[in-house]
Amino acid sequence: MATATAATKNTRQQAAQRAQITQMPTFEWVALDKRGKRMTGSMAAKNGTLVKAELRRQGMNPQTVKERSKPLFGGSGGSVTPRDVAIFSRQIATMMASGVPMVQSFEIIADGQKNARFKTMLTDVKQNIEGGASLNEALGQYPVQFDELYRNLVRAGEAAGVLDTILDTVATYKEKTEAIKAKIKKALFYPIMVLVVAFVVCMIMLLFVVPVFAKTFQDAGAQLPAPTQVIVSASQFMQSYWWVVVFGIAGGIFAIVMAKKRSVKFAHFLERVTLRLPVMGNILRQSAIARFSRTLGVTFKAGVPLVEAMDAVAGATGSVVYGQAVRQMREDVAVGHQLQLAMRQTGLFPNMVVQMVAIGEESGALDHMLFKCAEFYEEEVNNAVDTLASLLEPLMMVILGILVGGMVIALYLPIFKLAATV
């Protein structure tokens, strides 16, 4: 009991020391080296005197040392994005493959981080490793940034003594998955922005432009054609109840987002509908298959048991439908079925993928076949996104032209009619 209490006390002291080191201020310094050349840099220390002493120890003559001022906003840094983790993975893999010790690698990468929050995180991980923790245990302190899949791969690499190779595989995996996400976001961004612009333009015309024309028509006593009357009635409704429309749309979007987060059934239904869309559904389907193939290939190559690997794979597909299918496949594999048979039962995987997995299982090269599938579908996603962008651009212009142009024509119809009678 006393031993456990002492161990807990030591752990708390180490945590306090790490927190104290992390909170030390950073000093910007200017010094002259032995040749008289001006050098600049930064250093974390308790005070400026210690910085000057360290510079003199390195053979430099300190000129100015001042504490780095804290920014007024965002002093803790922005959130750590998956892209930050992908870049870090490539950096740590490259350094360890080059023979740089892990602790020194973390120190170098943390020192070059512009995101203060990520820098603090990497510093804490480095100090945990210095305290005797494994990389997997140190990363486990940040489960949001380094998910279960990431940590499982690192743990497998540490157990097999091939951590540098596994980190290189993880880096490639993160880069590929983030590239697919970026492609899909790029494909969705353009049409959404065009629709938003069209909505804003229509609102401006209904609230400010149409009332001017309506007053002119009323003063002239002109009989309004049906299209014009519809536009004028819509304008009158918007002037009286614009807040209903705006809050109704915002509330609808919010309700859908919250329902998707809280209800698995609704999220599953919504995604099923999305997957049936002509072009976008195909892109989402191919993206999920690519993520599944690459993730399972990476985990299997790292030596993670297939049943255990599929738990992490289910969350990495980026799809509720495919995630549920992978969990069902895990149950089938756990009772002794082959992976290709379990995949076939879901009805979500193309025959080509199932056949390649079957060949991989028979030949003992499952990871190689899964990587081939991932590369094929990643290329398919790239081509589909490029095609979608080329199709959407003229389509969005046509929609915008019909909405705005239709309103303009409807407003000028009475004027054309008056001009014809004269």
TrEMBL record:
Similarity section: Belongs to the GSP F family.
GO terms, biological process: protein secretion by the type II secretion system
An annotated GO cellular component: plasma membrane
Compartment(s) of residence: Cell inner membrane
Ranges where the record places region Disordered: 1-20
Membrane topology listed for this record: Multi-pass membrane protein
Keyword Transmembrane: yes
Pfam families assigned: T2SSF
Record has Cytoplasm as a keyword: no
Signal peptide: none
Matching InterPro entries: GspF/PilC, T2SS_GspF/T4SS_PilC_CS, T2SS_GspF_dom, T2SS_GspF_sf
Organism: Dyella choica
Keywords in alphabetical order: Cell inner membrane, Cell membrane, Membrane, Transmembrane, Transmembrane helix, Transport
Name assigned to this protein: Type II secretion system F family protein
Residue intervals of the Type II secretion system protein GspF domain: 88-211, 292-414
TM stretches of this protein: 188-214, 240-259, 395-415
